[in-house]
Write a structure and sequence with these properties.
Radius of gyration: 14 Å
InterPro entries: Polyketide_cyclase/dehydratase, START-like_dom_sf
Pfam families: Polyketide_cyc2
Protein name: SRPBCC family protein
Order of helices and strands: EHHEEEEEEH
CATH topology: Alpha-D-Glucose-1,6-Bisphosphate, Chain A, domain 4
Structural class: alpha+beta
CATH class: Alpha Beta
Shape: globular
Length: 129
């Protein structure tokens, strides 16, 4: 199983970052440059990437106390896929985005890792205070 872990600083107050990230309807804005569209229906969200890839994700948990959202990718691209994004407040202001993605099969790493890295760069740019 591949486990990708990314942690990036954000130049925004943690509560403002969480308010934006917790609502799936904001993801196209947060990840602009990587995503072109997000459609939300209940706990399912359909995300469209700039490369044309369309993926359906199920939100499995939104934890306001820990500022963490957990989701899984549905469909045939993965045998298993679990991921989470969490906002962690920094002392003195600012915060970090911690993004973890665990999946099988291992060969999907070549698809997921570049998208995750581009997503981190987009979030840092688009969530600037």
């Amino acid at each position: 199983m591949v486990s990708l872990y990314r942690e990036i600083p954000l130049e925004i107050d943690a509560s403002r970052a969480w308010e934006t990230l917790r609502d799936s309807r904001n993801l196209a804005r947060v990840f602009a440059g990587v995503l072109t569209d997000v459609h939300v229906e209940g706990d399912l969200r359909t995300v469209t990437f700039t490369n044309g890839l369309v993926v359906q994700e199920r939100v499995v948990g939104v934890d306001d106390a820990r500022m963490r959202v957990a989701y899984t990718v549905c469909g045939t691209n993965f045998e298993q896929h679990a991921a989470s994004m969490q906002i962690v407040a920094e002392s003195g202001g600012g915060c970090r985005l911690v993004w973890i993605s665990d999946f099988l099969p291992d060969d999907r790493r070549v698809m997921v890792e570049p998208l995750m890295d581009a997503g981190c760069a987009a979030a840092a740019r688009n969530l600037a205070g």
